[in-house]
Amino acid sequence: MNKWLMAMLAVILVVPTWATPRVGIQLGSDNGVTVHAQGWDVGVSVERFAVSVDRRIPSNLNPALYFGVGGMISDTDDEEIGLRVKAGVATQIDQLELFAELVPVFYPGKDLEMDLDYSLGLRIRF
């Protein structure tokens, strides 16, 4: 329950600061709430509580393709801080954005570890 409250608080604090945000859900390695606005993606995972922030970089090759770089903070003991490098595709249908992402996450702890996160999701534009 506390994780859901923290996720909602994070979304409430983030959304008013940006114009025309897109808010939605993501399912995959980290299920949770996602917000996109002005080239930034913010995700709050609720299974293992984590907050990620990524700068989205559009591709010149295909309008649906994008890349990104950012970071993640998690409440797990062995993987608290990570560097994220994402690749994704998104399509817009009226006010709805559908997306899929693959995100290698590098954890620079005692030993450099890597996980591969993935997600499918949708966001609604306000």
Summarize the structure.
This protein has 126 residues and is mainly beta. It contains one helix and eight strands; from the N terminus they run αββββββββ.
Polypeptide structure, described:
- This protein is mainly beta and 126 residues long.
- It has a single domain (2-125), classed as Porin (Beta Barrel), CATH 2.40.160.
- The protein has one helix at residues 2-14; strands spanning 22-28, 32-37, 40-45, 50-58, 65-74, 81-93, 96-108, 112-125.
- Strands 1-2-3-4-5-6-7-8 form an 8-stranded antiparallel β-barrel.
- A hairpin with a 3-residue loop joins strand 7 and strand 8.
- The longest helix has 13 residues, at 2-14.
- The two termini are 27 Å apart.
- The model has no long low-confidence stretch (mean pLDDT 86).
- This is Outer membrane protein beta-barrel domain-containing protein.
